[in-house]
Amino acid sequence: MTKSVIHTDKAPAAIGTYSQAIKSGTTVYLSGQIPLVPETMEVISEDFAEQAHQVFKNVSAVCKAAGGSTNDLAKVNIFLTDLSKFATVNEIMSQYFEQPYPARAAVQISALPKGVQIEIDGVMELPE
Hints:
By secondary structure, this protein is of the alpha+beta class. The chain has 2 helices and 8 strands, in the order E-E-E-E-E-H-E-H-E-E.
């Protein structure tokens, strides 16, 4: 099976040696998205809720570029620098997903790129 690079200008450009996403068959592997505004490549703000919204917008843009939507995500991983923000993540996530929700992990880590508070990656399964 071959792999295809997924890229969109509606999500932040890769800032390292990776692609926004890779499609292999009907599976799409999304790289981690942080709250960068695609047009400026700057962090949206210091406010956690604004950062979370921007990350979900970026994830949504990559899903769309791959031919799907957030509702096609089978698994997401959420990385937080403060796990006490988890209730806020749940509330915001409900605005970007419909049931059945994807499988999910949420973990607290010590730091993220550019000092942001949240990063999300995922695996999407497209209809055949």
